[in-house]
Amino acid sequence: MPKLKIGFPLYLNTLPLLFFLPQNSKIEIIVDIPKNLNFKLKKNLLQGGLVSSTHYAKNFEEYFLLPDISISAVGKVKSVILFHHLPLEKLQNQKIGITPETESSYALLRVLLEDFLKIHPAEYVELSHNLKELSWEKRKSLAAYLAIGDEALTLTQEHIFPYHTDLAELWLKYTNLPFVFALIAVRKEIVEKFRDELKFLCYELYQARAKAFSNLKEIVEKSHLKIDKEVAYNYLTHLEHDFSPLKQKAFLTFCNFLYNKKIIPKVPQLNFFNL
C-alpha cells in the first residue's frame, strides 16, 4: 500500500507542527527547502506539502488546501529579512541577491519595494547558493541580500549588514494585514485515494499545534537546534500557524498584487479539503 507523502520545510518554523505529530505507518513526512518542495509537489513526487503561498497561487486549480493551517505572521516574522548595506531608500538601481530557497518572500520583496516604496533595483540576482557559500566578489557586488528561514535568524545574530528589514513587518505597515508565507496543499487527484489519511493528518496537526504552543519552551529545550535556544523561543512566539478568515483576506490581497505584476496568471480561489 503506497504511503501518503507530505513535505515540510526543513526550518525551525515547522517545529510547532511536527514536534508532537505522531508517526503513522501510512504517512511519510519529507523535509526539504521550500523551493524544492514546490518543485516536488508540482512534479507529483509528493502528494502534498507545506509549500509557499505563491506556489499555491500559481497552481491553485491543481490543489486543495488543508483547512486552518499556515505559516504566517502579524508584523515581525524575524525569518524573512532583507539585509542591506545601504538605507532602504538608496537601493534604487542596486543589485539585490535572492536566496535560492524562496518563492513567496521574493515575490513579497518585489511588491514592497516596487509598489509601496517605489524602489526599482537594477537587478534581482536569483542565486544558486546561500550567502556564505558565495565568493567574496559575488557578495561584494550585492547591495542587499534576501534571506529566509534559519539563515535569516543566523545572519541577524551575526550583524554582517548594517541594516535589515523584516518583510512581514513592512507588509503590515502598508496593508494593516498579516502575511501568509506557506500553506498545506494536496494534489486534487489523490484526495479520494488518501481521504482517511488526510483527515487523520489534519486532526493530528491541529492537536500537535495546540500542544506545541502550550509547551513552547519545552519543545525548544528538547530540540536539537543549531540556533541559540532563547533566540529560537523568541522567534516562535512571533509565528502563527492558523489560516483564519483575516489571513485568507490577507493572502488574497497579496495575490491581487501578484496578479497586477503578472507574477500569477489569475487571482486564486481558496479550495479547501472537506473534513
Explain what this protein looks like in three dimensions.
By secondary structure, the chain is an alpha/beta fold. β6 (about 95-100), α4 and β7 form a beta-alpha-beta unit. The strands form two sheets. Strands 2-1-3-10-4 form a five-stranded mixed β-sheet. The chain has eleven helices and ten strands. It is globular, with a radius of gyration of 18 Å. The model has no long low-confidence stretch (mean pLDDT about 95). The chain has helices spanning about 15-20, 35-40, 55-60, 105-115, 135-140, 150-160, 165-175, 195-215, 215-220, 230-235, 245-260; strands at about 5-10, 25-30, 50, 65-75, 80-85, 95-100, 125, 145-150, 165, 180-185. The protein has two domains: about 5-70 and about 180-260, D-Maltodextrin-Binding Protein, domain 2 (3-Layer(aba) Sandwich); about 80-175, 3-Layer(aba) Sandwich (D-Maltodextrin-Binding Protein, domain 2).
